[in-house]
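Notebook B, p. 112. Complex prediction, attempt 2.
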Amino acid sequence: MKNFITLPNQQNTALLAVRNLSIELPSAADRDRAVDDLSFDVREGEIVCLVGESGSGKSMTAHSILGLLPRGVRTLAESSVCLAGEQLVGLDDARMRALRGHDVAMIFQDPMSALNPLQTIGRQLAEAIRLHDGGRSPARDLDVRCVAMIGSVGLPAAEQIMRSYPFQLSGGQRQRVMIAMALINGPRLLIADEPTTALDVTTQRQILDPVRGMQRERRMGVLFITHDFGVVADIADRVIVMREGRLVEQGTREQILTRPAEPYTRQLIDAVPGRRPRAGAGVQGASRRVTPPMLEVAGLHKTFVSRSGWFNPARVVVAADNINFVVRAGETVSIVGESGSGKTTLGRMIMRLTEPDAGTIKLEGRDLLRASGAELRAYRRQVQIIFQDPFASLNPRQPIGDAIMRGPIAFGMPRADARALTASLLERVGLGAAAIPRYPHEFSGGQRQRIAIARALALQPRVLISDEAVSALDVSVQAQVLALLEELKNEFELTMLFITHDLRVAAEISDRVIVLQRGQVVEEGSSAQIFGAPQHAYTRQLLDAMPGKDIFVHPGDAVRSACGHSSSPVV
Amino acid sequence: MQALIRSYLRHPSGIIGLVILLVIIALAALAPLICPGSPWDSVGQPFMPPDSPGLLLGSDSLGRDIASGIVHGASVSLLIGCVSTLAAVLIGLAIGATAGYLGGRVGDWLMRFTELFQVIPAFLLAILVVAILTPSIRTLTVAIALVSWPQLARITRAEFMALREREFVQAARCQGESGMAIVLRQIMPNALSPIIVTASLSVANAVLMESALSFMGLGDPNLMSWGFMIGEARTMIRVAWWMSAFPGLAILLTVMAINLVGEGLNDVLNPRISRR
């Protein structure tokens, strides 16, 4: 797999040449080496995607290039990282600082923590220039350059952005500011460490397009780290697949995506959601019998008003504007929309965690907004929710078994029974009863989400709401959790409300899809209708923004397969 | 519980603190055995330097044994420090947790009430309370508790407000747990570390405040205390340094030991640190 390195001419044209890179982890880690004997090139004007699951060492590789490895982690002596012929391993700090941000720039996953909250965007951008030109540029030039740069990453009203503080911008705007900051000194190599993970599809598109555009314009080399093959399909020239610190395979985008040599690569590609659109719902819905409505939402309104002081005008955000829909028993309905579309608030209102301003929510005909006290508790038992962030939704100071059995105990189940139930549920979600006394921090993100699922099921609910439950997970883990949810849904006869920004996930799991924009339902229909023949412009826009849609999703398939076999099991 | 003790025993600075604290507690408990007789009695010449015959730590201006004063003073300092802090923690937790969990108007009013205490300089308030109620060990404790709870209430409220919105708390609500169970099981364990650290500092603070009040002559007139000893010795520090140095050292060691124990507890109660 590493025989390619001997080609000498390739070494000459490479902008970044990584050879035999090995990174040693501290002795307490789960494996000796984060990265083991990795070699690859990034050429000028080329986007190389480094793909792998969490823990595959892809981020470590990226960080080692800029000498940003955490304490206790070191690069082994035989490693070589050359940037345009200059050896970066063991480079002294002063030279490395000069390179960072000037020749090599990096963008990170979380744009909020990478920007200084107390400085305007303009100041931070100007500082990036000043650091590398020795403060020689006159202030007016700096301004002009910054404004031009902000414009070129596709942000409108550049002057206004310059005067803004990071908290005044949206996640997508902040990430684009980060890109502007990274590119402002015209680096030859850009390293992007999962810059679009956890962003919704349209925002993701707003990041990928400028990266791609700027890269073409400037003939920049880009090392793009991601776990999402959809993103790979959109931007990569070449792809490197990593697993547990080792190179699995590398090749051009077409090679890897259409003719992967290694089964592991195949597996990762297969994990991309939305490749097997659900068939069950059918175009005419002929095969499906009509079940009674489980959840009825009518005329739901919610407006958030936040005041920042007595005399300042209040900020008004409409989260729900006359929302009406029905979910029938046994159905899986997806609510899709961008961040800020009100989909999470909708879930919270159904859980009675947020009180709506007006409207009714009925569960099997009973109005829940009037329920209180004992009635509300009984209701909560029937509707359960899985939250997005598996790290935040489990109490770090509570053993996970306790977290699961508390619910049944609160509803009067004897402790021993609750414990047995917990053990069987943990077994069912694939963790085993041995996990009962362990604490959340001992589990990975995917495992924690399984725990959260077990906790929700412990109360034997009728309706399960999943609020972006798989959005924070790796694509391969996502596929497993989706498959688990699908199985459990049938096993426990659940009705599922699936809140997601990822249309690919919605396509895979749902019978029907409801598209939400700024608190309004803009389109509703079967999966096949929404994906095959979207009516509303906003739906089409969302579909267009889907990463990897050219290769992975063929809307027509949904309609065609709908007529064929019914409800294919998810792998 | 056993696991907690075992993991505490692996915490080096916590052990050091605990050992020092246990020694001080033992001294306080065994005072009548170690130094029989009243610490107020003159037992030798005044101004004897340390290591004089029969006077390990020297004597003061009236010929009283410094060592006896320290040993007998330990119980007063510890008692006032611990009881007043316990009272302050109870008041602070109750008010802070209610204000933080309920929020809204109730929370606002509780915080206005807390601020009422915070705007008065703590030491002045303590002096005032002790002076009005006549100095005794009970009034000293009340006064010190009264001025130390607002800080604990504020910290508790801040923690509760932040934790109330966390997803695991919402999940517990969805699971049908009652408000009390959520407060005790979900929020409290996660809010505990800053409260423990503040409380251990507050014990130290109470020891110091008792000393300061005694120094000003507002201590319990029947009980020897470290602060009283330092207060007595202040005018003679240049001729008899030992009179203030040893009680001062005792205060320093006690405060440090309590802080170390607090820090140790804090680490042990955090599964992320203790269960590596």
